[in-house]
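We emphasize that the prediction below concerns an isolated chain of 281 residues; any contacts that depend on oligomerization or on bound cofactors are therefore not represented. The input was used exactly as deposited, without trimming of termini.
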Amino acid sequence: MQTIHTVAALRAALKNQASIAFVPTMGNLHAGHIHLVEIARQHAECVVVSIFVNPLQFGPNEDLASYPRTLKADREKLETAGTDIVFAPNTGEMYPETQTMTITPPPIASELCGASRPGHFAGVATIVMKLFNIVFFNGSARQVAVFGKKDFQQLFIIKELVKQFNLPIEIIAGETVREADGLAMSSRNGYLSAQERASATQLNSALQSIVDAIKSGNKSFPALETTAIQQLCEAGWQVDYIAVRSAKTLLIPKENERDLVVLAAAKIGTTRLIDNLTITI
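Result of the prediction step, given as a token string:
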């Protein structure tokens, strides 16, 4: 496994690759990330994983400075998983000058997570476009990028990016990997105190209760959302949103919508967690 820190060196290493599968990450890797790498391994000869904490997607009061940087441990996990190349640039390499040109994401980027994180998805879309241009510059015969379903809104926006810019890249979605008690794995889970960790499963439970109600025929989505929000607030959470949306458009479901996703973001203590569950009715 190679670890590469510059764009020029990465492009040189990938110049003659016939098939590339790419997994972009911000590091501090857990089993969910490794699952994405294992998926990538099935789809291409060369697996590239990037580790870059992207400042463009953090707001002024978010955890950019404290976000865990664990490159040594990450490299060990990635080598065991069969990664071929780790691309670990510094900020100056990715942004040698101020990034005044950015990707404007679709209007849905201002809803859900985007409502409380203005500019976040513009930062995500911009860094992903930059990384795609770096990794897939040689037009290899098979170009695959793997993203997790836990960041459902991000996955939706990346798919739109690829579609609307006619990028010859196949986006593959990896299922959310969970702890034994149902908590979605996240790099931010490490911020939780023991007491907060014990309560963190309440977020998934709230989503599951909505899914169960929908399966039972309840289509009063606003009422289901309100009840779940109230229950979490009473348990000490600060709820950003809980929403039932179309899994295909992320908009409020139409009358006959069958493929749904229930999404949530909420803080327990100072840690913001997200989760989602899909359902077909």
